Amino acid sequence: MKDFTDRRDADTPDEIWLLEHEPVFTLGLNADPSHVLAPGEIPVVRVDRGGQVTYHGPGQLVVYTLIDLKRSKLGIRDLVSALENSVIKLVASYGIEATARGDAPGVYVHERKLASVGLRIRRSCSYHGLSLNVAMDTAPFKRINPCGFDGLTVTQLAELGAPTDLAEVGVGLVERLLAELGPGFEL
Q1: pTM across the whole model
Q2: Is 186 a domain residue?
């Protein structure tokens, strides 16, 4: 992501990457390491995104948004809202009501966090993005204060009775994200 962002120029097309990570706790730029309570065998890696600490692992869909915000005429809040709204609309299609919160970026279902947002903007271009819990082992979240909030619980699509095929969920999420980013947005 960093290399892509460093090499891009005004004509470089935007990209959205979908992937899964091996188990890892990541700390954002200003994260307080004390929010990692008991990492055990899971590596802890400092990364150059916003936000506090989170967990990534198999069964979680990670969406990296490599977007030239200036060219797309998007502000940072626009991108955060587009990411959150794309998840909200995706899960609504499964009959699940989700919300965003002004005090803590991400998407929540009954006060349990379903998706996290953490971005980095450099040279007017975004990287990092969103993680959506689909069908994963959520126990590692109990070994941290997710997003810096003591006692914050997480949920996942599997617990909510939604589809859990990562490819299917990814296609649905990207379709909604492109719609949220606005007319004419292309990758």
Answers
A1: 0.96
A2: no
